[in-house]
Input
Amino acid sequence: MTSAYVRDNKNQPIKDVWTLEAADPFALGAGHVDPAAAMDPGLVYDLSPRDYIHVLCTLNYAAAKQIALLMDNHKISCPRSSNLVYAADIKYPSFSLHFNSTRIPKLVVRRREVTNVGATRSTYRVHVEEPSGMKISVQPETLEFTKKNQKLKFRVRFQSTITKANEDATTGEISWKCIRGGTHVVCSPVVVLWRGL
Output
């Protein structure tokens, strides 16, 4: 997902086959698979089965037995502590947000963690393409890795800048561009759904 591309061989946005307009993430997903880039992605959002258990626990499943039904190991228990504040903080490489005027606050913070699988010493700087109606800030803006398989965390702050939406959904992207130790660009699509604004 993070190494997929969204431009064609003429450097134009890939088109939606139905509308012949630039495809959005609903039509395109994260983009077109680039097998060579996927073999050397630079950074990964490293998920394990345990992370999914944490998500289910965060969603307040009533009993560990319910979670165990989904896993091969029937001796599952929810951890006493978890890195997840919300289920949406899972180490997943995309961001999907739902804003409306009645239930969801106009400010949402999401947390992520990435693992360096590229050069031992590498530095990445964030680049943000904001969806319309949204202000996005990322902290820290630079990730500096000093070893392979090192994990670093970052927070993304999504702030609504509108009181009335003109579209049902807007899209953008958060990408980490390697500025030392390689040429990787690690992309995460952002989709914001506007309901009731």
Q: What stands out?
A: The chain has two domains: 39-46+91-197, 49-85. The chain is about 10% helix and 35% strand. The two ends are 30 Å apart (CA to CA).
